[in-house]
Design brief:
It comes from Paenalkalicoccus suaedae. By secondary structure, the chain is of the alpha/beta class. The protein contains five helices and twelve strands. Bound molecules: glutamine. Glutamine binds next to helix 4.
Length: 194
C-alpha cells in the first residue's frame, strides 16, 4: 500500500483526494504534523500561498515539511502549492519552503486571463492534458536539474526536479487524472528504492 497525504490547511483538498484514488493507494488528509510520518508522498494543493504559509507557521509545519522534502519523499505542488515549493518568488524577498529550484511569478497571466482552460502536451504523460488555470503563477526560470514538462504559449507551467513535481494549473479540477497517476508512480518508485 502506498500512503499519500494531501496537506489540508487550506485550498482544494477534496479534489486531490478524488484524483489520487487508486486501488493500492491510501490517501491521508494531513492536518497534523504527526501525520507526515505516515506518508510516502505529499500533495500541496492550490489555494492562496500566503494564507497557506501563515497556517504552515501557525500549526508548526514549517520545519517538519522542510525535513519531509529533504527525506527524498515526493512532493507535488499545484498552483499555490508550487509557489510554496519555489526557491524564488518574483517581487518577494523570501521564498516559502524553498525546496525546488525555480522562480515563480504569482498571478502572472494577468487580469483578463484570471481563469482559463487549455489542452497541453506534457512530457511523460500525453499530448492532450487538460489544464485549468486560476490566478495561476508562471514558472519564470528553472535550475539545471529541473526538467520542464509543459509550457503554455512559451511559459513554463509544469516541471519536475527529482522527487519534486510542480504545476501552475489545477489537474485536480478535471476528470483527467493522469498527472496524479504520474505522481503516484513517482511515490511508488521512491518507496520501492528507499
Ligand atoms: N494566486 C494564488 C497564490 O498566489 C494561487 C492561485 C491558485 O492556487 N489557484 O497563492
Amino acid at each position: 500500500m502506498t500512503n499519500i497525504g494531501v496537506l489540508a490547511l487550506q485550498g482544494a483538498v477534496r479534489e486531490h483526494v478524488v484524483a489520487l484514488e487508486a486501488p493500492d493507494v491510501n490517501i491521508i488528509v494531513v492536518k497534523k504534523v504527526e501525520q507526515l510520518a505516515e506518508i510516502d508522498g505529499l500533495v500541496f494543493p492550490g489555494g492562496e500561498s500566503t494564507t497557506m504559509r501563515r497556517l504552515i507557521n501557525q500549526y508548526g509545519f514549517y520545519e517538519p515539511l522542510k525535513e519531509f522534502a529533504a527525506s527524498d519523499k515526493p512532493i507535488f505542488g499545484t498552483c499555490a502549492g508550487a509557489i510554496l515549493m519555489a526557491t524564488e518568488i518574483v517581487g518577494q524577498d523570501e521564498p516559502h519552503l524553498s525546496v525546488m529550484e525555480m522562480t515563480v511569478e504569482r498571478n502572472a497571466f494577468g487580469r483578463q486571463r484570471e481563469s482559463f482552460e487549455a489542452i497541453l502536451p506534457m512530457k511523460g504523460i500525453g499530448d492532450d492534458v487538460q489544464a485549468i488555470f486560476i490566478r495561476a503563477p508562471i514558472i519564470r526560470s528553472v535550475g539545471d536539474q529541473v526538467e520542464v514538462l509543459a509550457t503554455y504559449e512559451g511559459d513554463i507551467v509544469a516541471a519536475r526536479e527529482g522527487h519534486f513535481l510542480a504545476c501552475s494549473f489545477h489537474p485536480e479540477l478535471t476528470e483527467d487524472h493522469r498527472m496524479h497517476q504520474y505522481f503516484v508512480e513517482m511515490v511508488r518508485n521512491a518507496f520501492v528504492t528507499a
